[in-house]
Amino acid sequence: MNVRSSACDDTICNHQARxxxxxxxxxxxxxxxxxxxxxxxxADSEVVVSWICPLTPVTTKPVSFKLGESLIYEDxxxxxxxxxxxxxxxxxxxxxxxxxxxxxxxDNYRIFFFVLLDDCPNISPLSHLDVLSMxxxxxxxxxxxxxxxxxxxxxxxxxxxxxDDYAMDPDDPEFQTKLGKEVFEYYLRQRLxxxxxxxxxxxxxx
Length: 206
Prior knowledge:
By secondary structure, the protein is α+β, with helices and mostly antiparallel strands. It folds into 2 domains: 2-156, no CATH class; 163-204, no CATH class. The chain has 6 helices and 9 strands; from the N terminus they run βββαβαβββαββααα. It has helices at residues 24-30, 57-60, 90-97, 142-156, 178-191, 196-204; strands at residues 2-3, 12-13, 21-22, 47-51, 62-67, 70-73, 85-89, 101-104, 110-113. A 3-stranded antiparallel β-sheet has the order 1-4-7, sandwiched between helices. Strand 8 and strand 9 (110-113) form a beta hairpin. The two termini are 40 Å apart. Residues 1-20 have low confidence and may be disordered.
């Protein structure tokens, strides 16, 4: 959830309204009062502070139900930190929260849109996050960015594959080897519908 900030705000509570807070001033200072996705400054557009990975019921459930007599919970400190927040333009923050925008840490912080930019005519994104210009004293969490990017992939490519975009040529030399023939045979089997007998064998074994 995005939480709006104003000039008089100095803290921001998470979407569950817990007592834990992060300092808006730290995030805005680190990101130079600009949207890190578009480079838009606070003077030109409304900029909000948004969680990278917000707390959810899944995050706050016990990791282990018993250890002696105590419940064990995940350490929430990384989630309740300035390193888990970004300054974003309001419309960009909405897309980011819906996992329509992600940042790939391992591709030099490349910015990915999982929505057609033609549908967002007012958004002109940067190609990469400019982490070098950020205040190093308020570090950005690569762990949280990876968590968020993974969630983007899961949300937008569940069961996704590009193999159907490329025809497999049985005459390709790679499929003439013993292993290649087995791979191609397996590929064909995956594309053929199961017979009723095959379904009954599979279901009876589960």
